[in-house]
Specification:
Blueprint: E1 6-12, H1 23-35, E2 39-41, E3 50-57, E4 61-67, E5 76-79, H2 87-100
Parallel strand pairs: 1-2, 1-3
Antiparallel strand pairs: 3-4, 4-5
Helix pairs in contact: 1-2
Length: 104
């Protein structure tokens, strides 16, 4: 029996915020790993089970939250003074966000 895929979307809260390359794919992978079921990325956040909302995305600072049908999630942030954030840092923040999100 196949499971219905969870739908995920990825948006920036502000038009001035650019999403880091590959972030949405890594978000979908983090959800798939945590939920242990298929995930399908969509472009319509209003139709998604989970939406990653990027609040800030800069070379040395990043903050985001996960919104669900139950409402906005709590934001999480990270920053570094001495070096730019890398994919591993983004992945760690995504894993923490997904761990706290109520998965449908």
């Amino acid at each position: 029996m196949s499971q219905t895929p969870l739908t995920v979307a990825c948006v920036a809260q502000s038009a001035k915020t650019a999403l880091p390359n590959g972030l949405c794919d890594r978000f979908a992978e983090a959800v798939r790993f945590a939920a242990k079921r298929p995930v399908r990325a969509i472009t319509e956040p209003e139709n998604a089970d989970l939406t990653l909302v990027v609040l800030q995305a800069g070379p040395q600072a990043f903050s985001a939250r996960i919104d669900t049908a139950q409402g906005p999630g709590a934001p999480r942030a990270m920053s570094r003074r001495d070096a730019p954030l890398d994919d591993a840092a983004h992945d760690a923040l995504l894993a923490g966000l997904v761990a706290k999100a109520p998965l449908p």
